[in-house]
């Protein structure tokens, strides 16, 4: 029954509550060695989905290793790895319909990999070249895909969470049985937008799944300095929302929890909060060095819980995967990433026009004037603008001919 | 045609938009069965149901975040912020999200369907927090469109255009005019153009530029000036950004003089932007410095509101200063 103030039982001495009497367990199926826990029920994951899922995890790991190295070589300005959190991100994505919306934070490239974002698309965005669909306007890793129902990433934290509630409200009215999954870190869950989003979703019964990747750190700030309560999962109670805590490095548990969350969201219009307990094995970003705030020992302990190895063992155990296949796929993915990167970094930058288009549906007169002024300036100092000056010649010719 | 006040015109525009397109949704604090604290959304829930017109929890950042998501999904949200003074918790969603949605995604996603309505401006003894005119904050953010209507006819036509615009619009409604401004409003569905200023009255000697409730003020000043033989041209900017430079410049090239008047404080107000642009385009045609008649650089006061406000006499004084320069 719904608890409201009007149905609360009266007491006649002060009774305080802090929620300590509610313990939220961790749902887990797969042990770190890849075998099932005693009493763990069989998964509903079929072979095709399981292989697709694992392939995306492996792809993400390969992509992250290669691109982090590229950043260290000075070929890329910035990078962020999903390493250690692949099961939480990709396991949840696999439990959705491919037409469900995903609104992520910035560390969820695995979701895109699962849905078929191509290596070309990854590279064109990372290098912000002329083929980047967002025309080199955002820092690396700010991917987006309309076809794959993946909202373009925005750097400010948690802004996508109330947007997910609104998007899912629209999906509910459209009545086509779709939902929205929004993914964010435990640090972002401290933002006001998180609380606004959960409250509104619960009040308006919106088909949205809130997936928190609790990876232990918000850059350097540990969870002990982020919140005093029982993690993020407990916050759902204040909004009377369904909540579950899951082992985020256990792909089967993440998959099953998200599958059931999706059923609640789509069939019952019940929003769900999932807290996936995981660990960011890599640095926050290419600009971060975690040795200043956490120990090697702690990192090594989590390496033993690596979600990839755990799933790999389970797959091999079932006869759905083998080590030869793993080696061949890893090698071919490495080649693909490297070759595609070499091409992408050589491509031209976006045309100068891309600086002013898409601010509005139709570019205002004043902005067109500003572009003309800029072009004239670059025309006078082409040596100072080596990247865009070559475009200028092309543009001028085109305009002259027209 | 029906005779109605500005509030009824807003209500009529929302009703018209919701009847014409079932994707249009109206929501905000107290917007549902109560119809909004000013009654701008009266009877909309009754007519269109709770799914399309509803109350939200009291959380502006949530309202605009939710509205951004809805617009990205393809709905046409019209979100109400109860007072423009309370829009600031949503500043991040508006400035970092709404304004950049199309640009940052290379037009893969946009929130063009979004309109945020907010009662705005002073003159109702509302003190600090029921009086402010925050248009300049938003004018500084490329991607946003800011619109302010001056009367009921304008309110309906501009609001319908804002709701259907391919860009997100912040629509500030001068609340002093909600019941005070009454006029004939077409019953039909019609739109007035965004990004276009309107020459409300032609004149020869000086251009007076304003928007919203301030139009009435400069009109009163112009009447007094006309008695002294000064011919004033009056322009309603209507869309604050992107603004109609051509109409303003054309007028100043003719009159050689410009006064810009707004209720918001002087420093960093949108009049400063207009003055800078006009002086660069009309430098050799100017007969006198461009004047600004605005609120003071203070928080919006209560008891001394009349003294703070850029009233008709302050505008008249500026007209004389400019003419006598």
Automatic annotation (TrEMBL), chain A:
Key words of the record: Oxidoreductase, Thiamine pyrophosphate
Keyword Kinase set for record: no
Catalytic activity: N(6)-[(R)-lipoyl]-L-lysyl-[protein] + 3-methyl-2-oxobutanoate + H(+) = N(6)-[(R)-S(8)-2-methylpropanoyldihydrolipoyl]-L-lysyl-[protein] + CO2
Dehydrogenase E1 component domain mapped to chain residues: 54-351
EC number(s) per entry: 1.2.4.4
Pfam family, one: E1_dh
Cofactor(s) the protein needs: thiamine diphosphate
Keyword Oxidoreductase: yes
Annotated spans, Disordered: 379-402
Similarity comment: Belongs to the BCKDHA family.
Function according to Swiss-Prot or TrEMBL: The branched-chain alpha-keto dehydrogenase complex catalyzes the overall conversion of alpha-keto acids to acyl-CoA and CO(2). It contains multiple copies of three enzymatic components: branched-chain alpha-keto acid decarboxylase (E1), lipoamide acyltransferase (E2) and lipoamide dehydrogenase (E3).
The protein's name in its UniProt record: 2-oxoisovalerate dehydrogenase subunit alpha
Natural source organism: Salinicola acroporae
């Amino acid at each position: 029954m719904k608890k409201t103030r009007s149905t609360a039982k009266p007491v006649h001495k002060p009774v305080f509550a802090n929620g300590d009497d509610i313990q939220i367990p961790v749902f887990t199926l797969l042990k770190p060695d890849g075998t099932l826990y005693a009493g763990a029920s069989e998964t509903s994951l079929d072979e095709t989905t399981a292989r697709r899922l694992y392939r995306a995890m492996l792809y993400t790991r390969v992509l992250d290793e290669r691109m982090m190295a590229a950043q260290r070589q000075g070929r890329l300005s910035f990078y962020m790895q999903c390493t250690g959190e692949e099961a939480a991100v990709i396991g949840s994505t696999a439990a959705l319909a491919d037409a469900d919306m995903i609104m992520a934070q910035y560390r969820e490239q695995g979701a895109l990999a699962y849905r078929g974002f191509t290596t070309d698309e990854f590279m064109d965005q990372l290098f912000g070249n002329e083929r980047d669909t967002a025309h080199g306007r955002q820092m690396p890793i700010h991917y987006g895909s309309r076809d794959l129902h993946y909202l373009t990433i925005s750097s400010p934290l948690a802004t996508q969470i109330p947007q997910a509630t609104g998007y899912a409200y629209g999906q509910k009215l459209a009545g086509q049985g779709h939902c929205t999954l929004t993914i964010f870190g435990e640090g972002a869950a401290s933002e006001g937008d998180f609380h606004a989003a959960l409250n509104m979703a619960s009040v308006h019964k919106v088909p949205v799944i809130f997936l928190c990747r609790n990876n232990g750190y918000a850059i350097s700030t540990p969870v002990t300095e982020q919140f005093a309560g029982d993690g993020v999962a407990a916050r759902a109670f204040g909004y009377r929302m369904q909540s579950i805590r899951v082992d985020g490095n256990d792909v089967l548990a993440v998959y099953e929890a998200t599958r059931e969350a999706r059923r609640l969201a789509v069939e019952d219009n019940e929003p769900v909060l999932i807290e996936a307990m995981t660990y960011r094995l890599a640095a926050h970003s290419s600009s971060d060095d975690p040795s200043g705030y956490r120990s090697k020992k702690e990192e090594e302990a989590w390496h033993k819980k690596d979600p990839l190895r755990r799933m790999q063992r389970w797959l091999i155990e079932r006869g759905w995967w083998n080590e030869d296949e793993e080696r061949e796929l890893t090698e071919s993915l490495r080649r693909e990433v490297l070759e595609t990167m070499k091409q992408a970094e050589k491509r031209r930058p976006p045309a100068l026009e891309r600086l002013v288009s898409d601010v509005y549906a139709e570019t205002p007169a004043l902005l067109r004037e500003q572009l003309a002024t800029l072009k004239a300036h670059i025309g006078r100092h082409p040596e100072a603008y080596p990247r865009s000056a070559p475009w200028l010649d092309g543009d001028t010719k085109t305009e002259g001919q027209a | 045609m029906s005779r109605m006040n500005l509030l009824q015109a807003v209500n009529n525009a929302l009703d018209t938009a919701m009847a014409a397109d079932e994707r249009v949704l109206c929501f905000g604090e107290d917007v549902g069965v109560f119809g909004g604290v000013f009654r701008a959304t009266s009877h909309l829930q009754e007519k269109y149901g709770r799914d399309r017109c509803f109350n939200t929890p009291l959380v502006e950042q949530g309202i605009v975040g939710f509205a951004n998501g809805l617009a990205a999904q393809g709905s046409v949200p019209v979100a109400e912020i109860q007072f423009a003074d309370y829009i600031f918790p949503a500043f991040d969603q508006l400035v970092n999200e709404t304004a950049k949605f199309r640009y940052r995604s290379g037009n893969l996603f946009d929130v063009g369907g979004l309109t945020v309505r907010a009662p705005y401006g002073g003159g109702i003894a509302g003190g600090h927090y029921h009086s402010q005119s925050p248009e300049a904050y938003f004018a500084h953010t490329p991607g946003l469109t800011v619109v302010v209507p001056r009367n009921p006819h304008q309110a309906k036509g501009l609001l319908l255009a804002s709701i259907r615009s391919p860009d997100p619009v912040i629509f500030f409604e001068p609340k002093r005019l909600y019941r005070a401004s009454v006029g004939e409003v077409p019953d039909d569905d019609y739109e007035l153009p965004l990004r276009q200023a309107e020459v409300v009255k032609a004149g020869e000697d000086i251009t007076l530029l304003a928007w919203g409730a301030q139009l009435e003020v400069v009109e009163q000043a112009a009447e007094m000036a006309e008695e002294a033989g000064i011919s004033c041209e009056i322009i309603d900017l209507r869309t604050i950004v992107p603004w109609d430079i051509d109409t303003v410049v054309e007028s100043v090239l003719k009159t050689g003089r410009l006064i810009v008047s707004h209720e918001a404080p002087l420093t960093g107000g949108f009049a400063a932007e207009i003055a800078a642009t006009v002086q660069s385009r009309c430098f050799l045609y100017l007969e006198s410095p461009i004047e600004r008649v605005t609120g003071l650089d203070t928080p919006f006061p209560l008891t001394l509101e009349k003294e703070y406000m850029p009233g008709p006499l302050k505008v008249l004084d500026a007209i004389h200063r400019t003419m006598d320069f």
